[in-house]
Amino acid sequence: MIRFYFHPTPNPAKVALVLEEAGLAYEVVPVDTSKGEQHLGDFRAINPNGKVPAIVDTDGPGGKEVTVFDSSAILLYLAEKTGRFLGGFDDRPELLSWLLFIGTGLGPFSGQAVHFQYAAPEGLDYAVRRYRREAERHYEVLNEQLAGKDFIVGSDYTIVDISAWGWIDRASRVLKGVEDPLSEYPHIKQWFNQINARPAVARARMVGKDHDFKKANDEETKRALFPSNYAR
User: Which pTM value belongs to this model?
Assistant: First the structure.
């Protein structure tokens, strides 16, 4: 059994999708980041970085309990556990390159673009432009990679597609103010529509729907999500 520490944001969504695609048994453990539950000691014992997602696999290698945090690490772990979504042997170097491109580039810059466009104080125009443009640049790189291809790496659906889906699904927030945010990236749009039609995506979207996550953006939420903005 896998305990899946979840909040409805892009990185946990990737893990929800790979779990559903693989048909693995799992239990959702809600972590309400707007209430600061990611900072509690019990969760920090699982992920010292205080971020979701994380998993605890009670049936890891050799039957031992294994803890994994960071969405890219979790995707890779689950793909290796099941022997699926890794492409061919010769694809591995490219797969790792693109997985880390998403984990260190597309994802973080998209997240910062969202933060500075929606959550940061007004007047930080340089930061807004910087992160929005870098997010767009990563979209451009991915769009070029997908030209004439069904999948990002090789000829098969892999954890790279799953990882990218988690963030491209939020394109309307990343590319704020654009009516059709993927219109400038036709190869991404075609790829996204293809991935989005998979039955496992619909199931992944339902993960956590039975939990009432906090939605109010009040002072408690700001302190929980952006603790570095407040004096210790």
Answer: 0.96
